[in-house]
Design brief:
Layout: H1 5-22, H2 30-39, E1 58-62, E2 77-81, H3 82-88, H4 93-98, H5 105-118, H6 126-129, H7 132-161
Antiparallel strand pairs: 1-2
Helix pairs in contact: 1-7
Length: about 160
């Protein structure tokens, strides 16, 4: 449906924001991020490109996506060009990189695996991060958001196509 991309973006950002309640570590000292980029020579861990206007620069890519409670911490963040970061989405990093025809693919995979093995990371879960009462509240918020999102879509559709009769 044309013109409704904003619902996808809105849903992504609200859902991600709710998940960041469970995975609250979303800041990292700049020195740590610079050290991680240095491990990968300032290039995208996936395609090996440095920052360019075309790939929109190097950004932090969550290995365990933020939408799956991944945090912005050492062991869960690798440098990626914005193009790879966007196209990877929520795919498993290994599945993503293996689906591409990047140069020196095996060496890139080994470098990422070495980094991840050196800096072991385990994402929090609802059960480990929240009490039962907090989990209930979180689940209520998720359900409330789904209702709000659906109602917003209905309003959008009624304004575009007139009320349903």
């Amino acid at each position: 449906m044309a013109g409704t991309k904003h619902f996808t973006r809105m849903n992504y950002h609200v859902s991600r924001g709710l998940r960041e309640i469970i995975a609250p570590r979303q800041t990292m000292p700049n020195e740590k991020w610079e050290a991680i980029k240095k491990i990968f020579e300032g290039k995208c861990a996936y395609c090996g490109e440095g920052p360019t206007r075309k790939n929109r620069g190097i950004v932090a890519d969550h290995v365990v996506p933020a939408t799956e409670f991944g945090e912005f911490v050492e062991g869960n963040v690798i440098p990626a060009c914005q193009t790879c970061n966007d196209s990877r989405g929520n795919k498993n990093w290994l599945e993503f990189i293996n689906s591409k025809d990047f140069p020196d693919l095996q060496a890139r995979i080994e470098k990422i695996e070495q980094y991840l093995n050196t800096h072991a990371y385990s994402a929090p879960t609802l059960e480990t991060a929240l009490s039962h009462e907090e989990q209930d509240t979180y689940n209520e918020l998720v359900e409330m958001w789904a209702v709000i999102n659906d109602r917003a879509k209905e309003l959008y559709n009624s304004k575009r196509h007139g009320p349903k009769t």
